[in-house]
Structure formats: C-alpha cells, structure tokens
Amino acid sequence: MPETIEVLVEGGKANAGPPLGPALGPLGVNVMQVVNAINEKTKQFDGMKVPVKVIVDPKTKSFEIEVGTPPVTALILRELNIEKGSSNPREEKVGNLTMDQVIKIAKMKHGDLLGKDLKRKVKEVLGSCVSIGVTVEGKSPKEVQKEIDEGKYDAKFS
After folding, report:
1. Fold of 3-67
2. What DSSP element (H or E) covers 70?
3. Tell me: the pLDDT tens digits for 92-134?
C-alpha cells in the first residue's frame, strides 16, 4: 500500500534535511531524486511555502509528487512584492492590483477556487483582497465586484 507524506516546502528549495529526509529515508526511495523532482515542480513558487504530497510505493520504490498551490493571499502579496497584508484593512491599504493581476491569480488557483467560472473565481480573489487591505484598479475590491456583476470587465473573461 502506498505511503503518503505531506510537507510544506519553500518553492524550489526543498532539501534532504527535515522534514523530508527523515520521512522518506525509511521508505527506501532515493531521497535526492525526490528532492530534485519537488524542486523542479515548485520552482515557479520561489520564496513561497507550497504544500507538497509525496506518494511512495515501498514495494517498487517508485514515487509520485503532487504540488498544491499557495494560499490566494500569498499569491496577492507576491504579486505586490510585499511581506504581509494590512493589520487594519478597512483604513490602511497596502497595495493596488490591476484587474489582469487578479485574473492571473484566479487562473493560478483555478482548481482550488469554488467558483463555476473565471468570473466567479476572480470575485473570490477580490474577497481576499478586501481582507488584507489591497485595492484593485485603485478602487475598493467590493466596488470592483459590483462592476464585474454589471459586466464592465466581461471582455477580459472571454
């Protein structure tokens, strides 16, 4: 029966030390092969913590790697090149995203967001913008959500 190991690694910077090495060692797989495969699959998330699942078949010593995506707020902060969101999001704004950046984040999180289509997924990302004090196109994300409902950005969703 396959063994599953779940770890949080920094994108592109996994190593054979804890938590990976000690978890993989007893399963008899080549730890460096696993580490290199993880780094290859997570390099686009450089500087961000990424959830990774390593599924190992102890009989055949084969392994499979599933990479999750960082949380939406982490992607927003990365897009803005800032460390953290606002401690008082109602009054203190920490950055401004363009609609294209919001759409890019929604596409990166495509499989994890609940919305039926890109338009609804973008509205979910806008909800995260509200909670960390980020404006979109210089406006409140709630205002942008209303504009989406009115069809103002429909051309971007086609």
Report:
1. Ribosomal protein L11, N-terminal domain (3.30.1550)
2. none
3. 999 999 999 999 999 988 888 899 999 999 999 999 999 999 9
